[in-house]
């Protein structure tokens, strides 16, 4: 007998921006909730529906109590949120016929019964959540249509830490269909695939499996392409290596060339090498030789609050005197910043020497360190701990068509007509210092550089939704968050990250869901050691909350570590790196926190290398993607450095790499616990203690520290609708 055809019914009343009152109240409660177990979100629901539709050859139906008159805007909203194509089942008669207060169970059931009668050969997958009608609706339908329900998938929303009333298999009567539950679609998907017996659709690896499509970027106003192919990507790990490469590139520029620089801070007296030149001299030299030099620096907040507007003004004055143009940009949200780090060099020689640099290293004091990590020689006597500490950081050097896209990132900001600053205490000092208020037009864009390698590169960004809006991102852009979420949705074996913060529960929720979904997945994170372990402030408490969540989800598969040099001095980890299963790699300016994912301007280069690394395991995740050259080289280079290993033998296999990290970190911790007696064990990684234990919620923290952390240190730049639904 031929198997019944699959159909999916998804009750969307719980996912729309406009929702019944009880739904909005529930979203507010979830928004304010805390705890390492709270992984409730809409994460992965689109992928769940798309996967069942593709692998099960199923038609998708969207069920709602809203009336047919709203069909067009409802379908547009679902397309905007990247749900797969489907048919709308509208069960309501009028907008105010009880929908607003959550009525409509009877009408939804009638719509389901009609659908079942119209498709007698279809076996149904019913998808919803436990915060409304769905438990009763789906249980009743399954009882009255025995054998017609293939599975029920329920997203759990109601008090995940306390079991309240949930749909139980015995609610469904005899011959009950399988019931799967999880707090988000990411964790729900593998359970649903298992009970439906679905297998992955095989085929050659596709770039769009990892990279965002234009629709998924969510910003149709930008001129950026989805991605480019044919690029060369080189790793520039450590400030010393990056500065040397940049100094050489800048020294070769001349008349007709275009040099574009965007940064958070610029220290003109920072030396790019032991014998110079300084940042100011290197950039000024390009202008004196006839190149067009345009620089965008964040203006910065007031010096009284410890910010660096004076340093940026000094660098601007040095460069303006040479004929360069420098804009100090304050077009940000309150308490925000421009955090992008970018240098683009377009040559007029026709020799395909165009190049761009993206990553975490600014042109600042203290950043010129190397693999030994003794600190920047120039800053060794500096009283500022931030610039004196040894620092670990990373950039990528890119050549090929992606350079034109990175140039476009700069052009979009440069050409924005909004005034650079609007507040009087910003405008007046800038006028006093004779800083320009607008840049002159840049030269007309030239075509893409010729292909230079075998890497596909996607440019990802963060811009907040602000007023007045950015013309190139009127609703903001959160493609960094979306790109990382998409890549983590394919993670199976190892996610390796290095990050300055890793301290947002909303970000940690994404990693926690991946760890729950993939039982073989390891997470290895390298972060800075806190400066004051005995006085935990908002930052330490925020990181503790986030790390408690990933530890709760992954247990021993999660390792969070910090770094010290051979003199036992902490190394400040400033890198922003993520490698997923040795396939997808990302290097940029973003940190893993709400500020970088939603609030400040950020820039990331995500890379898929066409070149395969054939060393075993040749396909760590087992999805057919293989191990890619650039991603694997990046992970292995960083891990070899931190573990002081001579080769890659113990690092290629994800499980063996995780064991090696754990063993070497434990040995170094034990050596310290024993009073640092005897030979120092090899390796620089130590267990990161402050984030491992769950942070206790106290009244002081709830009313004093939490607001400071969430409003000042780690603000959220998403629209309220996105915050309430925990989406990006």
UniProtKB/TrEMBL annotation:
SUPFAM superfamilies: Phospholipase D/nuclease
Domain PLD phosphodiesterase residues, every copy: 569-596
Top-level taxonomic group: Bacteria
UniProt catalytic activity: a 1,2-diacyl-sn-glycero-3-phosphocholine + H2O = a 1,2-diacyl-sn-glycero-3-phosphate + choline + H(+)
Keywords tagged on the record: Hydrolase, Lipid metabolism, Repeat
Database matches in Pfam families: APP1_cat, PLDc_2
PANTHER family: PHOSPHOLIPASE, PHOSPHOLIPASE D
Protein name as annotated: PLD phosphodiesterase domain-containing protein
Biological source species: Actinomycetospora straminea
Lineage, uppermost ranks: Bacteria, Bacillati, Actinomycetota, Actinomycetes, Pseudonocardiales
């Amino acid at each position: 007998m031929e198997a019944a055809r699959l159909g999916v019914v998804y009750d969307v009343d719980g996912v729309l921006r406009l929702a019944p009152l009880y739904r909005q109240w529930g979203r507010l409660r979830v928004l304010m909730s805390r705890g390492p177990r709270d992984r409730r979100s809409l994460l992965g629901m689109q992928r769940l529906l798309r996967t069942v539709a593709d692998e099960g050859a199923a038609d998708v139906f969207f069920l709602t109590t809203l009336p047919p008159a709203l069909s067009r805007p409802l379908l547009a909203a679902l397309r905007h949120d990247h749900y797969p194509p489907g048919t709308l089942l509208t069960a309501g008669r009028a907008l105010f016929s009880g929908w607003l207060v959550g009525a409509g169970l009877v009408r939804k059931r009638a719509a389901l019964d009609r659908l079942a009668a119209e498709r007698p050969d279809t076996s149904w997958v019913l998808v919803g959540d436990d915060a409304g009608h769905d438990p009763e609706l789906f249980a009743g339908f399954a009882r009255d249509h025995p054998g017609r329900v293939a599975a029920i998938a329920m997203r759990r929303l109601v008090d995940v830490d306390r079991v309240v009333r949930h749909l139980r298999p015995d609610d469904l009567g005899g011959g009950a269909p399988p019931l799967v539950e999880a707090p988000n679609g990411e964790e729900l998907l593998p359970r649903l695939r298992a009970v439906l017996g679905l297998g992955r659709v095989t085929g050659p690896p596709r770039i769009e499996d990892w990279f965002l499509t234009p629709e998924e970027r969510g910003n149709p106003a930008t001129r950026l392409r989805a991605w480019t192919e044919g690029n060369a990507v080189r790793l520039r790990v450590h400030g010393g290596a990056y500065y040397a490469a940049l100094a050489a590139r800048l020294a070769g520029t001349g008349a007709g060339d275009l040099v574009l620089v965007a940064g958070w801070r610029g220290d003109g007296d920072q030396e790019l090498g032991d014998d110079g030149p300084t940042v100011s001299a290197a950039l000024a030299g390009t202008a004196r030789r006839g190149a067009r030099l345009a620089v965008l620096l964040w203006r910065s907040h007031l010096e009284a609050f410890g910010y660096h507007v004076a340093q940026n003004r000094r660098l601007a004055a040095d460069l303006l005197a040479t004929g360069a143009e420098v804009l100090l940009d304050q077009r940000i949200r309150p308490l925000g910043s421009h955090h992008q780090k970018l240098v683009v060099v377009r040559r007029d020689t026709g020799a395909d020497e165009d190049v761009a640099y993206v990553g975490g290293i600014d042109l600042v004091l203290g950043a010129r360190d190397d693999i030994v990590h003794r600190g920047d020689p120039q800053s060794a006597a500096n009283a500022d701990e931030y610039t004196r500490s040894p620092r670990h950081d990373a950039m990528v050097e890119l050549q090929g068509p992606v350079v034109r896209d990175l140039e476009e990132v700069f052009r979009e900001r440069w050409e924005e007509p909004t005034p650079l600053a609007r507040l009087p205490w910003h405008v007046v000092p800038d006028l006093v210092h004779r800083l320009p208020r607008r840049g002159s037009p840049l030269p007309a864009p030239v075509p893409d550089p010729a292909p230079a390698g075998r890497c596909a590169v996607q440019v990802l960004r963060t811009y907040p939704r602000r007023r007045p809006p950015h013309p190139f991102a009127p609703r903001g852009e959160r493609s960094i968050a979306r790109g990382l979420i998409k890549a983590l949705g394919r993670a199976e074996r190892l996610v390796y990250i290095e990050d300055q913060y890793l301290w947002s529960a909303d970000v940690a929720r994404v990693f926690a869901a991946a760890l729950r979904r993939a039982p073989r997945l390891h997470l290895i994170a390298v972060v800075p050691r806190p400066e004051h372990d005995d006085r935990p402030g908002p930052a330490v408490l925020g990181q503790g909350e986030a790390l408690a969540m990933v530890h709760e989800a992954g247990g021993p598969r999660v390792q969070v570590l910090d770094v010290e040099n051979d003199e036992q001095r902490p190394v400040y980890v400033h890198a922003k790196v993520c490698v997923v299963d040795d396939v997808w790699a990302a290097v940029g300016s973003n940190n893993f926190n709400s500020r970088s994912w939603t609030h400040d301007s950020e820039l990331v280069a995500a890379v898929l290398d066409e070149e395969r690394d054939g060393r075993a395991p040749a396909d760590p995740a087992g999805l057919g993607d293989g191990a890619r050259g650039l991603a694997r080289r990046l992970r292995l280079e960083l891990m070899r450095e931190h573990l002081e290993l001579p080769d890659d033998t113990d690092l290629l296999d994800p499980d063996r790499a995780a064991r090696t990290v754990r063993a070497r970190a434990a040995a170094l911790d034990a050596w310290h616990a024993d009073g640092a007696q005897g030979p120092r064990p090899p390796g620089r990684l130590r267990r990161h203690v402050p984030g491992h234990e769950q942070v206790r919620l106290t009244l002081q923290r709830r009313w004093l520290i939490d607001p400071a952390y969430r409003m000042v240190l780690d603000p959220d730049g998403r629209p309220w609708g996105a915050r309430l639904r925990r989406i990006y």
